[in-house]
């Protein structure tokens, strides 16, 4: 089916059209300095072709998410793991859905990794799903840089390889690349050289004008015309556009991006004194809506203060046994929970041996005149694990009971760490850091936290992945709860975990 996409008008006022079917075989390169109208051109082209062909837009600034409301495009946010993005890309090809990959707010290196995983997913689709598809990449110099920049070599190689596959080998898979860049000198030559259609906008640097003139087959003296182009005006050449260079003016668009061409607006009419009061107003003078009241957090108890409480308790007379018998089971349970809270409030408690903590627990019980709370070491370890996770044994939630049952597959000293992870996932909190995991285990070494995650993964209790932002994603497999650690990428020490699992099995 032959479809002519209306881009606008030429110098004679006649319609400037693009042969969509030819574009699918020959690809397109758009070049122009910032403010020349590249995004406007892409928007016009994609709007006019949306009813006829499947589209995928790699959007680094979130300008094309408005296509979702007008043309039904799906917005794919990049806050996902690489496997998730690849699976989404393959389903996109299978079901022929038009999408916008929104990379807004991500660092350049993360954007490159996200785009690489997404494009590779489209490229690696099965042969039965090689339907025609336009792939528009705005600011392509970010994803296919000509030279190495501040990003890592790994991210650059992945992104450049995906872009090269799109432009060099994508035609046989039905993928037609449309790349837009501010400068041809910033774009990798292997990517730019595969385009047969060109739309060149306003350019000022001599090297960029000369290269644009060479691509269009123009004389070097004619390269000066690129400086005189107005925003939204381009010189077109290619089998899908025109056999000779022709100037065109891009028409209007139906949708708008989040960012646009800045325009002047009047400044506020305020006296200098009034403006000074607004700028230098103190925080007390501003309107403030107090947040809803919260329960006061329990103050952290230092080791010195805790020892002082123990010494003060020893001086108190011991009550008669009849006073202990008058307490109900609920009251006794609350007292036990308070004892564990006081013990764990000590910053050094996480690094003390369990037998020492057990003796402290018995001492607290005597101070509280709670003789019936004495228990054996195994039961104390269990209670200590639950206390470190911030839960009690009488939780009625079925999902949490499943987590507690699954923790039995771990050694007693690891159960508290697993329950802490599950508690954070259930409450929607961030994933604990390596230091926090090691601390809950009773170690100062962050590598111990990575070892614990690997050991749990070997036992089939958790699944550990990493997304493009460097965040660790941990899934609690018994319930499907998910939590993310923000920050530095962390890898699980799988080799050590396997060795530990084999040693535990032998024992």
Mean pLDDT across every amino acid position? 78
What Rg, in angstroms, do the CA atoms define?
A: 32 Å
Main β-sheet description: 11 strands, mixed
Number of strands: 14
* Poorly predicted runs of 5 or more residues: 297-311, 313-325, 489-493
Describe this structure in words.
With 507 residues, the chain is α/β, with parallel strands linked by helices. Among the domains are: 4-250, 3-Layer(aba) Sandwich (Rossmann fold); 410-507, Arc Repressor Mutant, subunit A (Orthogonal Bundle). The protein contains 19 helices and 14 strands. The chain has helices at 20-26, 38-49, 67-71, 82-95, 108-123, 153-169, 189-192, 206-215, 272-279, 303-314, 321-325, 329-344, 354-367, 377-389, 398-406, 412-426, 434-441, 446-458, 494-506; strands at 4-10, 15-19, 28-31, 54-59, 74-77, 99-102, 133-137, 175-181, 197-200, 233-238, 242-250, 462-466, 472-476, 481-485. The chain has an 11-stranded mixed sheet with strand order 2-1-11-10-9-3-8-7-4-6-5. A 3-stranded antiparallel sheet has the order 12-13-14. A hairpin with a 4-residue loop joins strand 1 and strand 2 (15-19). The longest helix is centred in the N-terminal third of the chain and has 17 residues, at 153-169. Mean pLDDT is 78; it is low at 297-311, 313-325 and 489-493.
């Amino acid at each position: 089916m032959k479809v002519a996409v209306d881009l606008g008008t030429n110098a004679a006022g006649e319609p400037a059209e693009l042969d969509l079917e030819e574009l699918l075989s020959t690809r397109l390169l758009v070049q122009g300095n910032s403010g020349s109208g590249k995004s406007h051109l892409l928007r016009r082209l994609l709007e006019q072709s949306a009813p006829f062909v499947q589209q995928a837009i790699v959007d680094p600034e979130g300008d094309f998410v408005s296509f979702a409301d007008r043309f039904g495009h799906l917005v794919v946010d990049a806050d996902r793991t690489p496997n998730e993005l690849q699976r989404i890309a393959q389903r996109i090809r299978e079901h022929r859905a038009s999408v916008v990959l929104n990379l807004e707010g991500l660092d350049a290196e993360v954007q490159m990794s996200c785009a690489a995983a997404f494009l590779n997913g489209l490229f690696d689709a099965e042969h039965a799903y090689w339907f025609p598809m336009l792939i528009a990449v705005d600011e392509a110099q970010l994803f296919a840089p000509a030279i190495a920049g501040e990003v890592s070599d790994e991210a650059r190689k992945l992104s450049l390889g995906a872009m090269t596959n799109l432009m060099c080998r994508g035609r046989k898979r039905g993928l037609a690349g449309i790349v837009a860049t501010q400068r041809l000198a910033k774009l990798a030559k292997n990517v730019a050289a595969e385009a047969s259609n060109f739309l060149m906008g306003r350019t000022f640097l001599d090297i960029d004008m000369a290269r644009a003139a060479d691509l269009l087959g123009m004389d070097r003296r004619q390269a000066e015309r690129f400086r005189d182009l107005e925003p939204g005006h381009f010189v077109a050449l290619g089998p899908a556009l025109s056999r000779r260079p022709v100037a065109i003016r891009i028409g209007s668009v139906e949708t708008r991006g989040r960012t646009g061409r800045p325009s002047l607006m009047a400044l506020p009419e305020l006296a200098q004194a009034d403006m000074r009061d607004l700028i230098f107003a103190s925080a007390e003078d501003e309107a403030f809506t107090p947040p809803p009241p919260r329960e006061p957090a329990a103050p952290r108890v230092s080791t010195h203060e805790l020892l002082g409480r123990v010494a003060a308790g020893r001086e108190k007379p011991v009550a008669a046994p009849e006073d202990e018998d008058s307490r109900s089971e609920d009251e006794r349970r609350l007292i036990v929970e308070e004892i564990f809270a006081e013990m764990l409030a000590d910053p050094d408690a996480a690094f003390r041996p369990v037998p020492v903590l057990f003796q402290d627990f018995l001492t607290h019980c005597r101070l509280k005149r709670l003789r019936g709370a004495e228990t054996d070491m195994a039961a104390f370890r269990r209670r200590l694990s639950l206390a470190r996770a911030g839960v009690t044994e009488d939780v009625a939630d079925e999902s949490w009971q499943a987590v507690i049952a699954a923790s039995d597959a771990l050694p007693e000293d690891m159960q508290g760490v697993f329950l802490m992870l599950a508690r954070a996932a259930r409450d929607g909190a961030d994933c604990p850091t390596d230091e926090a995991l090691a601390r809950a285990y009773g170690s100062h070494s962050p590598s111990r936290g990575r070892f614990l995650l690997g050991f749990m993964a070997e036992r089939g209790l958790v699944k550990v992945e990493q997304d493009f932002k460097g965040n660790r994603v941990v899934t609690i497999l018994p319930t499907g709860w998910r939590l993310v650690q923000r920050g530095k990428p962390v890898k699980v020490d799988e080799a050590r975990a396997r060795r530990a699992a084999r040693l535990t099995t032998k024992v």
